[in-house]
Amino acid sequence: ATRFEPQQQIPETIPENLSEMTKDLLHILDNINQKNLQECFHDAIYYRDELRILFKNGRISLRERGLAENAFWRIMVMVNKLVQKLKYVPDEFEGLDSALADIYYANISVFQSLPDAWAIKQLFPIMPIHRLNERPTRNAIISDITCDCDGKIEQFVDLHDERKTLPLHELLANEEYYLAALLVGAYQETLGDLHNLLGDTNVVSISISQESGRFEIVKELEGDSVADVLSYVEYNPQALRDSFKRKAERAVREHLITPAERKEIMTAFEDGIRGYTYFER
């Protein structure tokens, strides 16, 4: 996950050679409250935009630009916290929560497993399937592991309408976090393609007893391996193995690697080509 939190601390001693706009931005940070919330919000956006222009024109340094951006986003975080306490939220604050959202990276390809979420903005109920006795403390959007900027989910089912973020739990070290996308029907996997060469996922068919409520795993199907996907796009996995093996043996003859290193490299190559196209521990 990528958490949205300004990392750099505001220095206790402010340099005297700062521009007046940066000083004004820092003044807002120190004086924002419930009563001047809207005024501070609009002023901060104005000063941020003006400082970016000054930076482009070479009139402020990169260090000052970084200080100003950090102060601006700290103000936005404070504004967002104060907005949560308002009985009526003015329109100008709409979208602020999503702008400050964390990014949770899911081990999926949206284009393979939920193509309608990308293509027609279909809303699927998405929720954690464990830690249900804990209240979620983070608001996030979901990004897949493709390199495509459209590989994300940023519209979610809400009680009456839709929302731009999904309440999720804080991730725990060395513990998997599982989400379920529900009501996807029978067509998402069949519509999916090999975008970024991420293949079919593992599939488990489950039967649930209506009497006892117990479930039984009926069938398990392994997803595509790297070798499978390479063959779909007209590569010969065995030819790739043979070519890589010849290069490794030539490297041994030329004393670039040792025989032990050759064995280790070939083992890693074989594990990779036989492995799953998604992230594996």
- What is the CATH first-level class name of the largest domain? Mainly Beta
Terminal CA distance reads 17 Å
Integer count of domains: 3
CATH superfamily of the largest domain: Lyase, Ornithine Decarboxylase, Chain A, domain 1
Structural notes for this entry:
The chain is of the alpha+beta class. The protein folds into three domains: 20-97, Methane Monooxygenase Hydroxylase, Chain G, domain 1, CATH 1.20.58; 101-188, Lyase, Ornithine Decarboxylase, Chain A, domain 1 (Beta Barrel); 226-274. Helices cover 40% and strands 14% of the residues. It has ten helices and ten strands. The longest helix has 22 residues, at 62-83. The protein is extended, with a radius of gyration of 26 Å.
Topology:
Elements: H1 20-31, H2 37-56, H3 62-83, H4 96-99, E1 102-105, H5 110-113, H6 115-119, E2 126-128, E3 138-143, E4 152-153, E5 156-157, E6 162-163, E7 166-168, E8 179-181, H7 188-191, E9 203-208, E10 215-221, H8 226-232, H9 237-253, H10 259-274
Parallel strand pairs: 1-3
Antiparallel strand pairs: 2-8, 3-4, 3-7, 5-6, 9-10
Summary keywords:
two-stranded antiparallel ribbon, 281 residues, extended, Lyase, Ornithine Decarboxylase, Chain A, domain 1, Methane Monooxygenase Hydroxylase, Chain G, domain 1, 14% strand, 4-stranded mixed beta sheet, 3 domains, 10 helices, alpha+beta
